[in-house]
Every structure is written in C-alpha cells, then in structure tokens.
Amino acid sequence: MSASVAASASARAEGGKPRGANYARHYWAFAAPAAAVVGAVIVFPWLFTLFMSVHDWKVTGTVSYVGLANYTHLFTDDRFQWAVLRTLYFTLFATLAPVVLGVIAAVCFAQKFPLRGLARTIFILPMMATPVAVSLVWTMMFHPQLGVLNYILTSIGLPPATWVYQANTVIPTLVMVETWQWTPLVMLIVLGGLASLPTDPYEAAVLDGANPWQTFRHITLPLLWPFILVAAVLRLIDALKAFDTIYVITGGGPGTSSETINILLYQTAFAYYDLGYGSAMVVVFFVLILLISMILLRVRTSR
Prior knowledge:
Helix content is 75%, strand content 2%. It has 13 helices and 2 strands, in the order H-H-E-E-H-H-H-H-H-H-H-H-H-H-H. Helix 4 runs antiparallel to helix 10 and helix 8 crosses helix 10. The protein folds into 2 domains: 2-53, no CATH class; 72-302, MetI-like (MetI-like fold, Orthogonal Bundle). It has helices at 2-10, 19-53, 69-74, 78-109, 116-128, 131-141, 148-155, 167-195, 200-208, 212-240, 244-249, 261-271, 275-302; strands at residues 55-57, 63-65. By secondary structure, it is an all-alpha fold.
C-alpha cells in the first residue's frame, strides 16, 4: 500500500498535476520553431492564395472581392479547358514512358555484366543535369536546319521531322525529353526494390522449371509493384508540375499547342498581371494533383 502511494505521489508534479502535463507544456518550446517555419512557408502562402482567388486582383488596378466568379470563369474558359486536357495528355505519357522504360532498365542493370557500374553511372547522368540546361541542349538539337536530330534523319534517308515546330508533334517531343531525363529516377527506385527481394521464390521457380519471362511475370513484377507505384506517383506529380522544360523549349507554342496549366497560369499571373484569376487556377490545379495522387496511393494500399 505504501509503495503504491509513493508511486502515485512521484507520478505527480508540482501543483498536483501529472508529470506528463509538465512535459507536454515544455514540448511546445521545441515544436514552436518548426511550426512557425511550416506556417510561414506553407500555410500562409496557401491561405493568401485562397484569399487572392476570390478577388479581382490586378497589379495595375484596384482589388475587389468577387467571390467565386474566378472559379466559375474557369469552367467557361476554353483556353483553360484545353490547357487541362494538354496537361493530362502530357502527364499520362510523361509518366507511363519513364515507368515502363525504368523498370526494363532496372531489370537489365540488376544483372551482372562487365562494366555494370560504369553503365549505371552513364545512365543516370541525364537526371543530374538541371532541366533548363537539358532544355537548352534539346532546343538546339530540335532546330529544323541546324539540329543534329534532323541531320541524322536525313543521313539515313528519312525526311526531317518537325519536332516542336508543329502542333501535332510538340507534346510527344516534350514527352521524349522528359522520358530521357527522368527514366533514371524510376530505374534507381525499382533497382533498390530488386535488391531487397527475397531469393526463396526464385529458387523455387528454378526447381519448378519456370523460364525467365514466367519468373518475371509471376514473381518479380508482383513483388516490385509497391516500388513501381511509388515511382509512378513521384513521376506523375513531377510531370503534372512540369514547367521549365516546356517553357524553355516552346513557351507554350506553337500557338497554344503545348500550353499546359502551368504555362497558362504563369502567363495569366505574370504576363497579364491577373493575380486573382491565376490564383484560382493554382487552387484548382492543386485539387487536381491531390485527387490524382490520392487515387494512385489508394491503388497502392489496396494491393
């Protein structure tokens, strides 16, 4: 009885409050700086963006409250609707191509062959360059008269391509640039997954007489699926946010044939100085990214 009373007494701090309450009061001293940084860097900008999105906010004019007028205008703006479709089109192929090629590259680089380390290093070099530098190099390569790509095509007897200078080829060409630069990222993620796979299923597959394709289809691919989905989510979010590559190479052209949401909202906010309408685009774009990411994460957790 006396031991329990002593334990109860020692479990309380000054003033008769539990000791945990005193500890919790001191936790805020450590969490406050991080909370202040998060609030200043993330929370406040988003709240201010929401505030601007319900105002007619032009740099050269007065600020007036318009409620949801900016949002309703988005759903009647043909230019914005086409930008959404182009963004989804670009994102689909700029995600699918790197994921497929990255998985193939990871499986290849997981095998043992001479100079494998050097080959891996060379393969990941595009990912190490900045997108602006990559875009400038590809812009010179796409030049219709002086570009090396058309020189190669004509050297082997093929007609020169229009690349980014025609509406029906500009998006596939931009996807090619994104695929070249970001396939190594997918490869590294999947390669890490391959290194963590257990060996027992493969030994059993050899005893059962499974060929390499059957082993990959029924063992490797299901075990790698969580890693592939993580790579797909990261790549999808990055493709949705793609701006620098498109802006440097085409600027949204020719015409508006490569104008994605990012290019359009940049033009709206910083070329036309309509900050309110541009902020509404940002909010809708954020909701779009959030919904797509949640769907992919839901698919990952359901398997």
